[in-house]
Design goal:
The chain is of the alpha/beta class. It is built from 12 helices and 9 strands. The chain is globular and about 50 Å long.
Length: 304
Amino acid sequence: MIPFRQWLSYERVADRRRLTRSRARSRVYLGKEEGWQAMQVVQVGEVSLHVRDEGPRDGPVLAFSNSLGTDFRTWDMLLPLLPAGLRVIRYDKRGHGLSDCPDSPGGPWRIEDHVADLEALLDTLGVRKAVICGLSVGGLIAQGLAARRPNLVRAVILCDTGAKIGTDAMWNDRIAKVEAGGIEAIAEGVLERWFTKRFRDEDPGFPLWRSMLVRTPKEGYLRTATAIRDTDYTEPTRALSLPALAICGSEDGATPPALVKGTARLIEGCRYEEIADAGHLPCIEQPEVMAGLIGDFLREIEHV
């Protein structure tokens, strides 16, 4: 039975944020009791990030950055299947999950804001030479961090992503629909790109993933969508020199295999792997296959 106190209310989250902000910037506030992991909040600049940092402190680090409209539960089914001994770091990016959705006095968010958040998070946790596994916008964040701070990144795993995702017209249309009708207005189309028809029709967990999408803070979704629209990392990614693996679901309707394969070709030595019977989130539809690919890659580069 899960201890009652593990189910922290939003009020207690707010209390912790106030406590964290009252301390020096970029401090970690972590609650643990009787063997269970409570809420972890890491202050990076003016943003409080909801973080889960698990595994041995001296273990090789695998950090995850997830997609637009999701929180770090996206990786839940994958984690038990990964090699033992890893220190696994997950977080809700700004505007998603339980993390802050800060105002933008300097204008719209840029991908560089998300990159800076992950950079500050790893610095605060004392991490160096992590493998960064990024999915969709998380893959953009991984590419940006590898270009900006190569000392933090030993290798990248680019899942269902690209150096440039979508067109301005596509993103402008989606942004307009969300502004007018909220995330519900685009939910069915997004879910069709995320998951295969079989999964949508048959998997008992599908309604929960839909709930995760539509409960994403509207402003967080919009500001991140704008950042994706305005990002083209083709040249920075072409300049990367590090071990890299690219993975894509064969039925991904958001970042199709051709896009992911083209991004893989930008990085010398990057291997491309395609997962059958999976859409944009193979970590949910085919976690065993994806974990196998990640584990093999980590062993190849002697990270585990």
